[in-house]
Amino acid sequence: MSHLKTLYLGQSMLVIRDACEVGSGITASFWRDNWTGAGPLIELAGADAPQRVGLPYDAVVRDALRGNDWWLATSRSRNPTILLLKSLLPGAGNMIECLHDDSFLWKTEDHAPSITFSTAKTWSTLHPIVNVVPWHMTVWFKHHIPKHAFISWVVTWNRLHTCDRLHNWGLSIPSICVLSNQHDETRNHLFFECDYSSQIWRHFMAKARLNPPSPFMDCLQWLLGASREANLAMIIKLLF
Length: 240
Prior knowledge:
- By secondary structure, this protein is of the alpha+beta class.
- 37% of the residues lie in helices and 10% in strands.
- α9 packs across α10 (195-207).
């Protein structure tokens, strides 16, 4: 008699599941533990179910037996709560003569259920490894300046509050670039199609005798192999 249940935290689903495998029934809580195949019965039947059916809230699974069957087996009541519980309770035969105690298992993702709770597996479940974007080393590199790296990350995802985005949100503001006063201010215009920012960027690149592409994403990819010399590569990323 076991069941695995997905837990939830806010809007995020966690693939950490608790399982209660009933043996003798002397440890597992009848109402609170997840042992029937449908989840904790208190959540299904309601908080007042213990009073309505006459089984205390702190009862263990074995307390629900009367002889060789469940105490509800002979009930003829049409009470919805009792009918629900009768439909959920598994056969009691295996528990009558069972000598071993109930066991509680943990399961994360595709790992087999285990009686041991693994902090490492839980951490990896809550923080799954996602696909690495090809440009991450041009933004989050060793010796990066945190503020600049964060802005670069925002720009790369095209989430910078440029005038075109603010205008699309309904703000009544000019969309013209404040640096060149010639074109609409967009992410790609600022980096580095704008005459102003392009002159600054190419001034430093000329010092290193480099000729990077103008489009932002192309330039971001170019930085991955801009120089084989480690110090110069770091300086170029800092300039970027």
